[in-house]
Specification:
Largest sheet: 3 strands, antiparallel
Order of helices and strands: HHEEEEEHHHHHHHHHHHHHHHHHHHHHH
Number of strands: 5
Distance between the termini: 146 Å
Radius of gyration: 54 Å
Number of helices: 24
Structural class: mainly alpha
C-alpha cells in the first residue's frame, strides 16, 4: 500500500535535494582550485626526503666540478699566476700557496731542472727540495763517516777554544816569572800570614808597620783553616805575646786578631788557653787602658769563653767575674757594661741548653756535659753581687740595652729571686718601664704592627713583675 504524500510536501523535498547537490559540486570545485594554486611555501613535504634529495643534488654538483671533463685546464707561464678553483694544471707545473693572499699560484718549472727531476724519478733517486740528489750509496757513506766527522769537528772546536783561551790568558808560570821581574810575588794565604807575623815580630818594624801587619792578619784568620794554619807555624803564640806590649795600640790589634781566630774554632781556643791568653786578657781588663783597647780585649774574651766550658772554669778560678764587675762599675764604661751582661746571659743559657739537650738524648755522662757541670757560674754571680748590678743596669736609656738587661734578669730569676724582691728600686724601674712601653706598644698597634718590638719588651716586663709579686 503506497504512503500518502501531499502535493505541496513532495515539491519541497525535491527542491531541497537539488540544492544539496549544487552545494556539494561547488565545494568540490573550490577545493580543486585551491590545490592547484597553493603557495609552495606552505606545502606539506617530508623533511627527511627533502634533505636526502638536497644532499644528492650537492654531491652531483661536486662530482661534476671534480670531473676532469668538466675542469678547466690552466696553461701556466714562467711567471707566477693565481689559480682559480675548478682549474687544473699540466703535470710538472710548479704550484705554491701564497701566504699573504691565501691563493694558490702556479708557473712552469725550469726546463733543465724538470728534465733532471724526471731522470731521477726514472732511475729511482730521491728528490731533494733544495735541488741536491743523493743515492743510497751516498747516504751509506755519509752515515759511515758520521761518527768520524763528529769527532773531527769536536776536536777542531776544542783546538779552537784552547787557542782562544791561550790568546786571552797566560800560563801561571809566565805570570810568576813576570811578577818576579817586577818584584811582585804571588803568595798563598799561608805565605802571607807568615810574612805578616815576621813583620809584626821584627824589632826593626815601626809601630805603624806592626799595626798594619796585625790589621791585615785579622782579615785572614777569620777563616777557620787560616786560623789553624796560624797556629801550626807558631804565629798564634806570637800574637798572644803581643798582649804584653807596652803600646796600647799593639794590645788592641793583637786582641782584635785573637778574637777573630778564636771564634767557633775549638782547636785554636785550646791552644790559646795553654798559651796563657786568658790571663793576659783579664790583666788588660783589670788595669787602666783606653776604652778602644778594652773593647777589643772584651771581644777576644767573649770569643774564647763561648762554647768552651774548660775556659769558663779557668775564667771563674782566675777571678774573671770580679774583673768584669769592676769593669762595669767603672765610669765611662756603660757601653762595655751591656756587652758584659750579654756575655753572662750567653754563658748561663749555654749551660742550660747543654743540660736540656743531655736530658732529651738521655746521655748521662758525656764529656762536654761533665765539663759544663763543673762550671759553677750561677752561684758565683750571686756571690759577686751580679743580681743587683744587673738590676741597676735596667736604668740605661737605650731600648736595645734594656732588652739585653731584661733577658739577663729573666735568666737569673731562679738564682736571684729573693734579691730582686728586696730591691725597691728594681720594682719602681719596672713599673715605670711598663707605663712607657704600654704607650709605645699602643702606637705600634695603631700602625698595624700586631707583634712589634715594644710589645715584646712589654711582655718581658709584665712577666717579670708577675714573678716578683
Amino acid at each position: 500500500m503506497r504512503p500518502l504524500t501531499l502535493p505541496g510536501q513532495g515539491m519541497l523535498l525535491f527542491r531541497m535535494a537539488t540544492l544539496g547537490m549544487l552545494l556539494g559540486i561547488l565545494m568540490a570545485s573550490c577545493f580543486t582550485f585551491c590545490l592547484s594554486h597553493q603557495n609552495s611555501e606552505f606545502a606539506l613535504t617530508n623533511p627527511e626526503k627533502s634533505s636526502t634529495e638536497e644532499r644528492e643534488r650537492k654531491e652531483t654538483t661536486a662530482e661534476e666540478e671534480l670531473d676532469p671533463r668538466v675542469l678547466e685546464v690552466f696553461h701556466p707561464t714562467h711567471e707566477w699566476q693565481a689559480l682559480r678553483p675548478g682549474q687544473t694544471v699540466p703535470a710538472g707545473s710548479h704550484v705554491r700557496l701564497n701566504l699573504q693572499t691565501g691563493e694558490r699560484e702556479v708557473k712552469l718549472q725550469d726546463e733543465d731542472k724538470f728534465r733532471n727531476n724526471l731522470k731521477g724519478l726514472k732511475k729511482g733517486k730521491r728528490l731533494d727540495i733544495n735541488g741536491n740528489t743523493y743515492t743510497s750509496q751516498d747516504l751509506k757513506s755519509a752515515l759511515a763517516k758520521f761518527k768520524e766527522g763528529a769527532e773531527m769537528e769536536s776536536s777542531k772546536e776544542d783546538k779552537a777554544r784552547q787557542a782562544k783561551v791561550k790568546r786571552l790568558f797566560r800560563p801561571i808560570e809566565e805570570l810568576k816569572k813576570d811578577f818576579e821581574e817586577l818584584n811582585v810575588v804571588i803568595e798563598t794565604d799561608m805565605q802571607i800570614m807568615v810574612r805578616l807575623i815576621n813583620k809584626f815580630n821584627s824589632s826593626s818594624s815601626s809601630l805603624e808597620e806592626k799595626i798594619a801587619a796585625l790589621f791585615d792578619l785579622e782579615y785572614y784568620v777569620h777563616q777557620m783553616d787560616n786560623a789553624q794554619d796560624l797556629l801550626s807555624f807558631g804565629g798564634l803564640q806570637v800574637v798572644i805575646n803581643g798582649l804584653n806590649s807596652t803600646e796600647p795600640l799593639v794590645k788592641e790589634y793583637a786582641a782584635f786578631v785573637l778574637g777573630a781566630a778564636f771564634s767557633s774554632n775549638p782547636k785554636v781556643q785550646v791552644e790559646a788557653i795553654e798559651g796563657g791568653a786568658l790571663q793576659k786578657l783579664l790583666v788588660i781588663l783589670a788595669t787602666e787602658q783606653p776604652l778602644t783597647a778594652k773593647k777589643k780585649v772584651l771581644f777576644a774574651l767573649c770569643s774564647l769563653l763561648r762554647h768552651f766550658p774548660y775556659a769558663q772554669q779557668q775564667f771563674l778560678k782566675l777571678g774573671g767575674l770580679h774583673v768584669l764587675r769592676s769593669l762595669v762599675q767603672e765610669k765611662g764604661m756603660e757601653v762595655l757594661a751591656v756587652r758584659v751582661v750579654t756575655l753572662l746571659y750567653d754563658l748561663v743559657t749555654e749551660k742550660m741548653f747543654a743540660e736540656e739537650e743531655a736530658e732529651l738524648t738521655q746521655e748521662t755522662s758525656p764529656e762536654k756535659l761533665q765539663q759544663y757541670r763543673q762550671v759553677h757560674l750561677l752561684p758565683g754571680l750571686r756571690e759577686q753581687g751580679w743580681c743587683e748590678i744587673t738590676a741597676h743596669l735596667l736604668a740605661l736609656p737605650e731600648h736595645d740595652a734594656r732588652e739585653k738587661v731584661l733577658q739577663t734578669l729573666v735568666a737569673l730569676l731562679a738564682t736571684c729571686r729573693d734579691r730582686y724582691c728586696q730591691d725597691p728600686q728594681l720594682s719602681r724601674t719596672l713599673v715605670s718601664l711598663q707605663a712607657e712601653y704600654q704607650a709605645l706598644a699602643a702606637l705600634e698597634l695603631q700602625d698595624g704592627e700586631d707583634e712589634g718590638y715594644f710589645r715584646e719588651l712589654l711582655g718581658s716586663i709584665n712577666s717579670l713583675l708577675k714573678e716578683l709579686r
